[in-house]
């Protein structure tokens, strides 16, 4: 699958491309930056005692990759037209996974501002849906693929054990602001950063709310450096993504000295240049929480 190498991937324009796929009658989306290729299903080798969501493994150009059933992960019945099924080969969190879906339809270019976060009224905090995209009379659901993987293998996510490996740490009350849309990640980040000695944390569910807060501090005409010391941001968030948030901060006459660490599953060799272009001070791939803590130490 060819990637768009144009300005969309270079400028922090708050835009993205998504691959639309179907499960039953429902439509979902995945960020193109996570997709390496889309292939027809091939024979899968089952693994004894594997998690129920894992169909087995396949080999692609010398790499052995796990195949995960989105059907099972989301509780959908079997496909009515299995001949349309596809394997979506992905890369995030420095790992590659293959997701078995019912059908892949098209690619959309949209703005993060078009993605609404789900209401807690109709979804629980453990839902894998992290965004809703209105496409005319239809809706696409953005899935939290990191959560699907963490549900299968909790040790692959952000864990306190990784912080404990750093040894005993002193507590600090210096303030850190964190923009992260995933309820699961917000909860895990709170627990792990608390364990690392960082207690003064303030979370926002997207870049837009975070920027509003930062600008409100400036409007109070106080020294924001005394109010907070660091921003940690995800990239994929409804309304405003982390690249655009970072760009807005670094272009701001008063906020531009605020250190920004991007903590995202999309920190890869191919995409790291995007964070550099918008002025991020550091970039860390999820789920490397110990590496994130060491980077925080440089600025707090």
From TrEMBL:
Residues 175-300 form the Response regulatory domain. Residues 15-154 form the CheW-like domain. The keyword Chloroplast does not apply. The modification 4-aspartylphosphate is found at residue 234. Pfam families: CheW, Response_reg. Keywords: Phosphoprotein. PANTHER family: CHEMOTAXIS PROTEIN CHEV. This is Two-component system chemotaxis response regulator CheV. It comes from Cytobacillus purgationiresistens.
